[in-house]
Specification:
alpha/beta; Rossmann fold; Glutamyl-tRNA Synthetase, domain 3; 2 domains; three-stranded parallel sheet; three-stranded antiparallel sheet; 10 helices; binds glutamic acid
Length: about 290
């Protein structure tokens, strides 16, 4: 028998709200039911958006909710070399290339493509990469790098798909369309996705795939908003030779208008609810986990 390992992985770029509470409590309850362990990961790769104050609040809010986790906490910003190793591996497989277009150059290219019929967007609503950097000569790439030009390292999706073949994952929760059981991955919907940048040597997708493997995570329990990301995470796992966890995507907690909660909405932050006199049991009831 192996021990099941779950994780809660918030970003310290705001205060936790009811949506986070639901995810953290569900992870905690499932770990308990499975006789497994719960880990905590701080997803702080973007130093411009993350603050120590929010990280401290995460520990405080989770403890208040009655959630404990196994130490040590993994802080992504302390593990950039793990992500760099993964990038080198993909580079050695010829699956990665640098692109140097600025945001406005990309926007102009997308506008041009949109005029010929709507150019596809990824599940986050970001236009797929429309550029041609994959065709740059090695000499030109070298010249741009030497010049210190900013760049993004992108996955060569066609080549990656050809290498990995058709992939699936086991879904024990459900996707936004009710997808459950054996789900066929569709990583192509992300196009030549950015895996790292000059200034941040990883991306959310790469760091999650690498960390879930390094932390031995067996069950990824997270919101349905990340359902489509799992396609890309499965692809990265296959390319990097990483083990495959079971996924459990859960419902999202919505506001009174049916919108996803955001970190900037004070009303549903755990701090605010606590200050207004709510108890952890009240929070459980509010997210439908009351007993
Ligand atoms: N850090 C992500 C978030 O706060 C969650 C990542 C994950 O669970 O894979 O939305």
């Amino acid at each position: 028998m192996y021990t099941r390992i779950l994780r809660f992985a918030p970003s310290p770029n705001g205060y936790l709200h009811l949506g986070h509470a639901y995810s953290a409590l569900l992870n905690h309850d499932m770990a308990r039911e499975l006789g497994g362990r719960l880990l905590l990961r701080i997803e702080d790769i973007d130093a411009t958006r993350c603050h120590p104050e929010y990280e401290a609040a995460i520990y405080d809010d989770l403890s208040w909710l009655g959630i404990s986790w196994q130490e040590p906490v993994r802080r992504q910003s302390e593990h950039f070399n793990d992500y760099e190793r993964a990038i080198s591996k993909l580079n050695a497989l010829n699956l990665i290339y640098p692109s140097f277009e600025s945001r406005s150059e990309i926007n102009a290219l997308v506008a041009e493509r949109d005029r010929q019929g709507r150019w596809p967007r990824d599940p986050d609503g970001v236009p797929l990469y429309p550029g041609r950097a994959r065709k740059l000569s090695p000499a030109e790439r070298e010249r741009r790098r030497r010049a210190g030009d900013p760049f993004a390292l992108r996955l060569a999706m066609d080549a990656a798909l050809a290498r990995a073949g058709v992939l699936h994952w086991t879904e024990s929760g459900a996707g936004p369309g009710g997808q459950t059981g054996l789900v066929t991955a569709a990583p192509q919907i992300w196009g030549d996705v950015v895996l790292a940048r000059k200034e941040i040597p990883t991306s959310y997708h790469l760091a999650v795939a690498v960390d879930d493997a390094l932390q031995g995570v067996t069950d990824v329990v997270r919101g349905q908003d990340l359902f489509w990301s799992s396609s890309l995470h499965r692809l990265l796992q296959a390319l990097l030779g990483l083990p495959e966890p079971v996924y459990h995507h859960h419902k999202l907690i919505l506001d009174a208008d049916g919108r996803k909660l955001s970190k900037s909405t004070q009303a549903t932050s755990l701090r605010e609810l606590r200050a207004a006199g709510s108890s952890p049991a009240d929070v459980r009831r509010m997210v439908g986990l009351g007993r």
